[in-house]
Design goal:
Layout: H1 2-22, E1 31-32, E2 38-39, H2 53-56, E3 61-66, H3 69-86, E4 91-95, H4 104-112, E5 120-128, H5 132-142, E6 147-153, H6 157-161, E7 166-170, H7 172-185, E8 190-195, H8 197-200, H9 203-219, E9 222-227, H10 236-255, E10 259-263, H11 266-279, H12 295-299, H13 310-323, E11 330-332, H14 337-353, H15 362-370, E12 378-384, E13 391-400, E14 403-405, E15 410-411
Parallel strand pairs: 3-4, 3-5, 5-6, 6-7, 7-13, 8-9, 8-10
Antiparallel strand pairs: 1-2, 11-14, 12-13, 14-15
Helix pairs in contact: 3-14, 4-5, 7-9, 10-11, 14-15
């Protein structure tokens, strides 16, 4: 009996030691990439960096860096909404400088500082202004397993795509055609594009302008380039907005009330809408479309009570436009692009870390965006380099259907329109 008891105790100790040893086995979940292949992440021994949700539980952090409310309110509000949803203890926010072109080092450091957090697993920058590429490279040198995600990149897409794990921009190619097509369908005969040299140096914006010009030629419309002050220069936002307020009456007199207007800068949008409402003209959608982009200030309406509810926000904006006689002349995306992108990309990062989504799956990206735009129709595709014709495997272009406000308002069906193939090679 004593021998049997001793034998049982020995076996129990063997099993206990085997169980303890099993805890040292690397059980990191493979990360699935496009095409269904899987690659094992490098085992650095740092569970905070592996991307393995089972190891980190729900204690990992996600960082979101945006512009300020004065420069890009929707981007910031989307980040705040995601933080409120998931928790301040898990979602960390930061703001890059308004004058980011003059404060490049501060911008880079603001982004890089997010990686100082040992629990940080994903960093999203929206909009990804100049300096983001360098910041991501520095982060990857320090913490290679942090997901670096760029929303609405201002730098050349192949360049930022070389440093980021994922890049997601508005579809400047398809929209370059679709915005002109919509203006033509609404009866516009002229399209006025307002920008400045810094923006026109970006491939995304200069290429879109070239596509818009080509589309105008195809639809028999006049295409006009107008230059306005850059808000990041010495004139600042007030000076840039004052210029737009002064020039719009002159432009309407020159180009007529059947001209549609488009500006590449958020700060220009509010004064442009305000003056078009008074003097005439069309506005199809903003550079980064939203019922919050410029409309509340231009219309003088308070949306505090409707905050976060885009159905109510759109209804109130639309009602005000109708009251001021603007029905059928002003459009938007029903759900804010900047808001949706900040929150949606953060959610996509969380889904990837938790092992329920694939980083480079367009359907998974769209599903995350859809959480914050439940009734909107989206379309999108991989970015194609106009020079080489090569499609990127980590850069995606997306767009939402255009909504024209009226009594009643209506969608243009843009997400269902097939863009002619020739526009994808215009540069």
């Amino acid at each position: 009996m004593k021998r049997l008891t001793s034998l049982l105790l020995a076996l129990a100790m063997v099993f206990a030691l085997a169980a303890c040893g099993g805890g040292n086995t690397n059980t990191t979940t493979p990360v699935q990439q496009d095409g269904g292949s899987t690659t094992e992440p490098e085992d650095t021994g740092d569970t905070a960096d592996t991307g393995d949700a089972s190891a980190a539980g729900s204690d990992y952090h996600i960082g979101i860096i945006t512009g300020s409310v004065s420069q890009s309110e929707d981007d910031r509000r989307g980040a705040e909404a995601f933080q409120a949803e998931i928790g301040e203890d898990r979602v960390k926010l930061a703001i890059y400088p308004d004058n980011f072109t003059e404060e490049l080092e501060t911008t880079i450091q603001t982004i890089v500082n997010m990686s100082d957090d040992p629990d940080m697993k994903a960093i999203i920058v929206n909009q990804s202004i100049p300096g983001t590429t360098e910041a991501f490279r520095q982060i990857k040198e320090r913490r290679p397993n942090i997901l670096c995600i760029a929303g609405e990149a201002h730098e050349d897409l192949p360049e930022i795509g070389s440093a980021a794990d994922l890049v997601c921009n508005n579809d400047f190619v398809s929209r370059g055609y679709l915005i002109i097509r919509t203006a033509h369908e609404l009866g516009c005969d002229t399209f006025v594009h307002i920008s400045f040299p810094r923006h026109m140096a970006y491939e995304t914006m200069s290429r879109r302008a070239a596509i818009m010009k080509a589309a105008c030629e195809d639809f028999g419309m006049e295409f006009v380039l107008e230059t306005a002050p850059d808000p990041t220069t010495d004139v600042g936002i007030p000076g840039a907005q004052a210029y737009i307020l002064e020039k719009v009456p002159e432009w309407v007199g020159q180009y007529g009330e059947n001209a549609a207007y488009f500006c590449t800068n958020d700060a220009h949008t509010e004064p442009l809408l305000k003056q078009l409402m008074e003097y005439g003209g069309y506005f199809i959608e903003a550079d980064l479309p939203s019922p919050l982009m410029g409309y509340p200030g231009a219309l003088g309406i308070d949306l505090t009570e409707e905050a976060g509810d885009f159905a109510k926000i759109l209804a109130k904006v639309e009602s005000s436009i109708n009251e001021k006689g603007g029905a059928g002349r002003f459009g938007t995306w029903a759900y804010s692009y900047g808001y949706t992108l900040s929150a949606g990309l953060a959610r996509h990062a969380m889904n990837v870390i938790d092992g329920v989504s694939e980083l480079h799956d367009m359907d998974d990206i769209a599903s995350a965006l859809q959480v914050y735009s439940p009734e909107a129709e989206w379309n999108g595709s991989s970015y194609t380099n106009a020079t080489t014709g090569v499609k990127s495997d980590n850069t995606f272009l997306v767009y939402q259907d255009t909504y024209i406000m009226g009594d009643p308002g209506y969608y243009m069906g843009s997400a269902q329109v097939e863009v002619p193939e020739k526009y994808f090679t215009i540069s």
